[in-house]
Amino acid sequence: MSPRSQPSRRRKTQLLARFDRIFKRRAGFAMLDLLLTRLHANKAELLTVLDRPEIPLHTNGSENDIRCQVIRRKISGGTRSEAGRSCRDAFLCLSKTCQKLRISFWDYLGARLAIDDAPQIQCLPNIVSCTWPPPLLPCYRIERVYHRRRTPK
Q1: What's this model's pTM, rounded to 2 decimal places?
Q2: Confidence check: pLDDT of 147 > 70
Q3: Closest by alpha carbon to 122, among 133, 135, 112?
Q4: Cys-Cys crosslink for 143: which of 52, 102, 108, 125, Cβ 3.0 to 4.6 Å?
């Protein structure tokens, strides 16, 4: 079965039965049995790809999205405060989302800050909702992160 094809009802039933057979098995080792139980408890999440074949079977895209931040963090030694970490994460999320949508991050930032000569660009949540499903955005909670920054403490 290719990751992009929708499995037949019969094939889906076979895969569900096989998943149960593998993860309900008891190995006799406490740690392994605990891991098998935990994986079986996450059955619905792990097998989402059977209902939504557009979901990738790997996390390479997500890992590549955060690679630049990991390198920056290693070089700089991290941030000094929780606020600095939150700010860095929010800007990285905005930057990567703009990159995936093929929007200049600096143009987007200029539009949000109402710079005179900046091109007019909609808010990212509006753009994302118009292009859903996206080509795997790095930050799927952009709206929540963006609005959290604006609320006073």
Answers
A1: 0.46
A2: no
A3: 112
A4: 125
